């Protein structure tokens, strides 16, 4: 009943929902600046008779249905945009210079908003016997993610399980990628600053060669790491920035190298800072340089709970027996992982490629998700709610 109602509701409100998405897309706001987005969401939810709870800064959540001892079903959407210039040429292109919903968060937000409004209408006509919470989270795109603040503000209090979707431009519309276990990677940032007495390149033996030390770090650390960590865990160290020197015939006194460390294994992630520090010491020990390691802990991997993922797959199959595909494990980071450190849940990949033309990537200015994916997402969340209700019965 829930799934059918939500599906019919979307069919009847499709034009309104698409207008919501285009409004959000036209007016993107970067992390922790989602003031107008929060106002728009709050206003729309109130129009549907709901009482949203605003977070202290930006973002909000809303409850539908009663509190029960079994706890609420939660859906999460991220509402921030990226500092990316849009080049899609769409009629509803971003009106904010240099800012764009280049990660599909406008799609996620619209799906969650439509789900909340549909369930609100359903609850008025046929009161739910369980509770739902829809979380509109700010600042997913910044370190270490707004999820930690949202959790601190009480968003998971009374929550039984939590679900989310993320658009996938490599997957055709109508397909829903599910995966038990790690679906994203932990993502940390490492920076190593090296220093020593500089000198003339004709007399390297009289100096500590900082540039040579940086080269050793660049080449030796990834290799050493691959011999200390199980390769099946998807642990990858990649450097993206190197800085040192000012002249071809002068050995500089300082230099730095920075990059990202990613792994799909939660145990390795928890121990990685200690291991990495040990490897840096070993590489630099013979070279006579001083160093400082700055290790920025990021987000853990999104670890989809087996039971929740099975429920998600069953919900997807209920709306389309051909919908479910196996999602690949991604090396990207996602702060939905922080919720799953507290309660069980699962994130799905939502196909948003039209099936024609080029497959654009996330975080790029030409990303243009097919809006038909919104309906798929709303119906999926409605089906999840029905599956959840059946399990609780």
Account of the protein in words:
The chain has 393 residues and is of the alpha/beta class. It folds into 2 domains: 1-182 and 301-388, Zn peptidases (Aminopeptidase); 184-294, Alpha-Beta Plaits (2-Layer Sandwich). Helices cover 36% and strands 24% of the residues. The chain is built from 9 helices and 16 strands. It has an 8-stranded mixed beta sheet with strand order 1-2-4-3-5-16-6-15, covered by helices on one side. Strands 10-12-8-13 form a 4-stranded antiparallel beta sheet, covered by helices on one side. Helix 1 packs across helix 9 and helix 7 (306-319) crosses helix 9 (372-392). The mean pLDDT is 97. InterPro entries: Amidohydrolase, Bact_exopeptidase_dim_dom, Peptidase_M20, Peptidase_M20_dimer. Keywords: Carboxypeptidase, Hydrolase, Manganese, Metal-binding, Protease. This is Metal-dependentamidase/aminoacylase/carboxypeptidase.
